[in-house]
Amino acid sequence: MTVPSDARKHSTIQLKNSLRALSDATRLSAAFMLIDALDGHRKTSTVEKWTSELGLFCRTISELLGDRKLNVITLGMYLWYEEIKGPSQVKMLRGALLYWISTGAPGLQAELVTHLQTSSPRPPRGMIAVQNDDPTERPFSTAQVHAILDAVAQLYRDHRFDSQSNFLWRLMISEAARPSQMSLMQFGDFTINRNSDGTVRSVRMMAAMVKQAGVPARSYMTEHRLSHAVAHAFMEHLDYVEKLAGKKPANTWPVFGVQLPNQQGGPAVYDKTGITIAHLILRSRKLIVEAIDDLDATDLFNRRLKHTKLTHLASAGASVDVLAHAGYQTSTISLQRYINLTEESFAEIEALLEDVHIEIASAFAGEVIERSEATFKDPEHRIVAPSLDDDLGACGAVPCSVLASYGCYGCHRFQAFRDGPHEMLEAKLVADQERARAAGLPAQTVQLNERTLANVRHVISIVRERS
Question: What is the pTM of this model?
């Protein structure tokens, strides 16, 4: 069945094939539900996903039952599937079944209907929890991003990528554009600003805000200025399409419409109805990961690239409004799902705040003295090293015994001995950090004593200057 899609092109939904695990009567009931949803009640893309997930569910259950056709979908089937699948898949199946219920069509067990209408869906794991549990979900490091961009550039130079693939990957890496947004892009969404001599000054892009409930995506657009590299990639792709089509692309033509040659060869052609972005990503990313030794195909996907961009922007100090605009978000509430400050991010923040840290370290209000110059020379006022075999210094007032001896380095009453074993304390703090890092503890824990370490090192620097 061919129907108009959200992107103003046609999509094919194979109801008979997708629902082949159902009995004839139940398949007709499910098909009625899906066609009713297409009749102005739900987006075509939503019905496509419902069809795919419902078909997968039915085939999985049917195989467990010895390839028996399903006459009715039961609560037991649903609960079993809910246990083995992820929240996003269960959510999609639940949406299809709830709409099935709303149509009054038969095929669902009464207990299942009651359960779906009276229960809440299982909450998905938070995005940060997913990233922390799965290394392939975590943001890429800056070095990894550079490696990916270098691989894309080399593939383009070697003519293994055409201008369409080059532009697509630069949009995903640099601009964090979603596949659904790219499938909606038309040439009229791009504005080329030129200097008086004709050279390109900038390229601005109007991006559709997808995932807006009840709002057609192209009715809500936001303007974004492309970086120089991405703008250059767009101009080359525009020239490429013009050569294939034999004329300047119309404003309504899809940006991604070049049909690549198949394995049998043949020329590339431009299709005014557009192409499937997901297929282009799957086909082209294989070439990227082949060029990067420590990267697998499963590591390289759009959501991770979006997490990477927003995390790096957050590390650079971008405001929440800037982050929302950069991530095509209509609000700042969901930004927490996309930002996960990695160890590298914390290191970048530390580097940016290095001058501030120096000022903090310089704020050490104690003094470095000879042992004989201590205000109080009795044992009660001595600050003992963690090894208990030497004194780091003495307290110039009434000893508080709080956080000794670590906390003393931040106290104005501390009188550090010039010949005290401060380097030993420094080595212990560094060893504690390395042990915490090796154990996989959060960066906040690893850097817990960072300020104390800075104060200890400041004392050591004073001692060395006097020596």
Answer: 0.53
